[in-house]
Amino acid sequence: MRSSKLSLGARGLGVRAATALCLVALACAEGPLEPEVPLDGRPGPQNTGPTDASALVAMTNSEVEAEMEAGRTLFENVYITGTVYIRADDVTFRNFVLDANGGHYAFRNCYSSDPCHTGLVAEDGEVFNFRSAAFVASNYRATRLDVHESQGDAFKVLGDNVVIEDSWFHHLGKSEDAHADGVQSQSDGATNIVIRGNHCDIPVPPPSGYKSNACWLGGVGDVLIEGNWLNGGNYTIYCNDGVDLIDNRFGREYRYGTITGSCRTNTGNVWDDTGEPLG
Fold first, then answer.
1. Residue 24 contacts residue 57 (beta carbons within 8 Å)
2. Which of these, 129, 16, 111, 124, lies nearest to 65 by C-alpha position?
3. What are 70-81's pLDDT values in tens digits?
4. What are phi and psi of 153, to 5 degrees?
5. Helix (H, G, I), strand (E, B) or coil at 138
6. 111 lies in a domain?
7. Tens-digit pLDDT profile for residues 202-256
8. pTM here?
9. Which has the least CB within 10 A, 163, 209, 227, 264?
10. Contact present, 95 and 55 (Cβ < 8 Å)
C-alpha cells in the first residue's frame, strides 16, 4: 500500500509527499496513518509514487546536480527540493519525491547551455509544485509517477524516445492562463513516443482552481497511445496521422468530445463505464 491519509495541513502536498515530508522532518504530529481503499488497476494513489516513504533522505536540487556532475547516476530514496537540471547521461531517480518548489520545471534535460542528455529514468516517485511541466525533455522514461499541482501541464515532449507509463497525472493548470495538458509534444517529427497504461485524470469541470485542456496534444510524429484511462479535456485526444490510439478507456467528463482529428490507427477504444466501443 503506497498512500496514506495524513492531516498535516500542508496545502498542495500529495499524500505521499506529505507522508515523506513528515518522515524526513520527523514532524508527524497527528496519529497513525490510515491506508486508502485501493482502486482498480488504473494508476492512482495506491500504485504510483514512492514505494517506501520512510527511506527518503532530503536533498536540494543543487546537491543532486553537484553529485551528478561528480559521476553519481542513481538517486534512490531521496526527497528533492527544487528544479533538477540533468547533467549526465543514464541518470535514474527511484523511490523519490521531487517538490519543484515553484520552479518552471521539475526535471529538465534539454537547455541552451548543454546538449540533451539521454537515458533519464524516473520511477516510483511523486512530482509536484512546478509552473510549466514535471518533465521538459527528450530521451526519458517516466514510470509509476504521481504528477500533480502544476501551474500548466504534466509532461512536455521535446524530441524522440520518450516513454510515459503506469503514471497518474491530475490537478493541473493552476495558472490563470494555463493550457493544462496531460502530455504535450512540442516537437513535430518526434519518434518513438509511447504513452501506455497511464491515468489521465483531468475531468471537466475540473476541481476549483484547476483547468483541463487535453490528455494528449502534439505535432505530427510517431506516437503510440495505448491502454490508458483517459478522462477530461476540451477534447481528450487531439489526433493526427502520426498517432496510434489503441485499447484505451475513455471517461465522459470532457467539454466537447473524446477525439478530434484523424488518428493513423484508432482501434479497441471503449467507454470506461460500459466497456462499449466509442461511438
1. yes
2. 111
3. 999 999 999 999
4. -100, 180
5. coil
6. yes
7. 999 999 999 999 999 998 889 999 999 999 999 999 999 999 999 999 999 999 9
8. 0.88
9. 209
10. yes
Using a 10 angstrom Cβ sphere, with 0-12 exposed, 13-18 middle and 19 or more buried, the burial of residue 228 is buried
* pLDDT tens, residue by residue, 68-125: 999 999 999 999 999 999 999 999 999 999 999 999 999 999 876 667 899 999 999 9
Contacts of 172 (CB under 8 A, 6+ apart): 148, 150, 152, 153, 154, 178, 180, 181, 182, 202, 210, 211, 212
- Which grid cell is 137? 525533455
Q: For residues 169 and 195, is the Cβ–Cβ distance under 8 A? A: no
Phi, psi of 63, deg, nearest 5: -65, -40
In a domain, 253, yes or no: yes
Using alpha carbons, list the distances in angstroms from residue 43 to 49, 87, 131, 167, 201. Answer: 10, 30, 23, 6, 10
How does strand 243-246 pair with strand 257-260? unpaired
Grid coordinates representing 224?
Answer: 503510440
Q: Which amino acid is present at 23? A: L
Answer whether residue 9 is part of any domain: no
Question: 128 near 147, Cβ under 8 Å?
Answer: yes
- 195: Cα within 13 Å, side-chain hemisphere: 31
Which residues form the domain of 159? 48-271
Identify whether the C-beta of residue 75 lies closer than 8 Å to the C-beta of residue 91. Answer: yes
Residue 158 belongs to some domain of the structure: yes
Here the cell at position 158 is: 521535446
